[in-house]
Write a structure and sequence with these properties.
This protein is α/β, with parallel strands linked by helices and about 350 residues long. The protein has 2 domains: about 150 residues, 3-Layer(aba) Sandwich (Rossmann fold); about 180 residues, Dihydrodipicolinate Reductase, domain 2, CATH 3.30.360.10. The protein is built from 15 helices and 16 strands. It is globular, with a radius of gyration of 20 Å. About 5% of the residues have low confidence.
Length: about 350
């Protein structure tokens, strides 16, 4: 098999389609894969690509589909339901693994397979999209600027963008589950939105609150900083309401509520339009602090999140296929450095003088 070929599972999803459509720009030819035969075949015919149809629950078909394939880019979420089957198949078939998750539990689960990957000489790198490439690169950059940092705060915002069905469904699956931060080196559960703060993203100053973003897991691996909080934008009024969410988390966790919300999501567009992807931007803010209270702050301006995910995942897939990888569990900036994000067209970084 040529070294520009990889298997893209979930190719007919919103983000999978973006990745498939842009692959040619990076000299790559993905094998499109998924469980919907009609959609996958039509997509493959349109792009002139090979395809394979199988369900992740069929382990034999899954492993047969991966035989001879050097790399899988897994784009079918919610990843906490799908990642383990795909990683296990990759380990059985000598296939490198990438995915576009942002789920803390998935990062931690893949990390636990590190020893198996090392034995097989394979790389496992979840989070090669907007979750968590730009934030991971921000964490690595700030660690370089302040090597003795003990605290890290990361915040992100998208101005002018919208969520895809897949992202919204993943969020629906997590309703009522609360938040998380890393405290003294350990991932600690806490209320969603336990903390709030105003952040100057450069273009706008926006209110943000703590959420369980993937960097609570990955930034610790990349930097070793023991205290990590992750934030995203929210309306101040909604933040005040969330203070009472603990009273009805039990209801949000019921299948009745989650299924109702999923039905509402399914009636909306699959994701942001091409026009929105080209005009919207995402913004990353990061700050580290050492024991003496000294701080370093930086900002990133990036393309819209789904567009960034397609580009960053293809950049990393190309690196792996060219032999630029390291066996075991890896984080994007931990392996490829803080400047990885600058390889994405339209990204700029600014170190702010506090």
């Amino acid at each position: 098999m040529e070294n520009n070929t990889f298997l893209l599972y979930g190719a007919n999803g919103y983000t999978g389609r973006l990745i498939a459509d842009m692959a040619r720009d990076y000299g790559l030819r993905p094998i499109l894969a998924g469980r919907n035969a009609t959609a996958i075949k039509a997509q493959a015919d349109q792009l002139g690509l090979d395809y394979r149809v199988f369900d992740l629950d069929d382990q034999r078909s899954l492993e047969n589909a991966l035989l001879g394939v050097p790399l899988v880019l897994h784009a079918a979420g919610p990843f906490f339901r799908t990642y383990k089957k795909m990683v296990q198949a990759c380990l059985a078939t000598n296939t490198h693994y990438l995915d576009i998750t942002g789920e803390i539990g998935v990062f931690e689960g893949v990390k636990r397979m590190n020893d198996l990957a090392l034995q097989a000489g394979l790389m496992l790198m979840p989070g090669v999209g907007f979750d968590v490439v730009p934030t991971d690169c921000m964490a690595a950059f700030l660690k370089q600027e302040q090597p003795d940092a003990t605290h890290l705060k990361l915040a992100f915002a998208t101005i002018g963008g919208k969520l895809s069905h897949g992202t919204s469904m993943t969020m629906a699956e997590g309703l009522g589950e609360g938040g998380a931060a890393r405290i003294d080196g350990k991932i600690t559960k806490q209320a969603l939105g336990k903390k709030g703060m105003w952040v100057d993203f450069g273009k706008k100053k926006l209110f943000t609150m703590t959420i369980p973003w993937g960097d609570v897991s990955t930034a610790f691996v990349t930097t070793g900083i023991p205290n990590i909080e992750t934030y995203t934008t929210v309306a101040p009024k909604q933040f005040k309401i969330l203070k009472w969410q603990f009273l009805f988390n039990w209801a949000l966790r019921t299948s009745m509520v989650r299924n109702y919300i999923k039905k509402q999501i399914a009636q909306k567009p699959a994701g942001p339009s091409a026009e929105i992807r080209e005009t919207a931007n995402s913004y990353i803010w990061g700050q580290v602090q050492n024991a003496a209270g000294e701080k370093k702050t930086a900002r990133l301006v990036c393309p819209e999140g789904y567009k960034l995910t397609a580009i960053s995942s293809l950049i990393i897939a190309k690196k792996v296929l060219e032999g630029n990888f390291k066996p075991g569990y890896q984080t994007p900036a931990g392996l490829y450095g803080s400047d990885l994000v600058l390889e994405i067209p339209g990204v700029s970084r600014t170190l702010i003088q506090d």
